[in-house]
Design a protein that fits this description.
single chain, alpha/beta, Rossmann fold, two-stranded antiparallel ribbon
Length: 159
């Protein structure tokens, strides 16, 4: 169990356009509080209108995939609509405080499923903690909360 004296707050930074990611983030935050007694603060970067600010506490990012063009493998892809989250992570050295990213998407898109989250993990050098489809299930919330708590403990011990 995480030592609450060492870590009592986790930011959940996400972008939600259709409401699916927001729904998941809400259930994820509620689960972290009820099962791990971990307080969270929510930041939907969509509401920031491209503003950024520094985050000096650990955070997890949650990112849906919206791509245009190509198949995501050999004919390319262009990230659309979710760029403000990447800009937020890149600003003010925020990437140094991101403990990992969770991707969402639709499995019907095959190789493009959660591709943007995979690209962010590679771009910024933090791990992809996992993925969920569309709004995610209760089992997804539990699984990803457990992985997040394990990662948070690892990061806390390293500092």
């Amino acid at each position: 169990m995480l030592d609450q004296k060492r870590q009592s707050l986790l930011y959940v930074v996400y972008i939600s356009l259709s409401g699916n990611t927001k729904s998941f983030a809400k259930r994820f935050r509620e689960h972290l509080l009820s099962q791990y007694d971990l307080q969270t603060e929510e930041i939907n970067v969509k509401d920031l209108n491209h503003d950024t600010f520094p985050i000096t506490e650990p955070f997890v990012a949650i990112l849906p995939t919206y791509l245009e063009g190509g198949n995501g493998i050999d004919t390319g892809d262009v990230e659309i609509l979710t760029n403000p989250l990447g800009d937020f992570i890149a600003a003010h050295g925020n990437d140094k405080h991101c403990i990992g990213i969770i991707g969402s998407g639709n499995r019907n898109f095959n190789e493009q499923y959660c591709l943007t989250a995979k690209q962010y993990a590679k771009r910024f050098g933090f791990p992809m903690l996992g993925d969920f489809e569309l709004r995610g299930t209760g089992a997804d919330v539990e699984r990803l909360a457990k992985i997040t708590m394990k990662r948070l403990a690892q990061v806390s011990q390293a500092h």
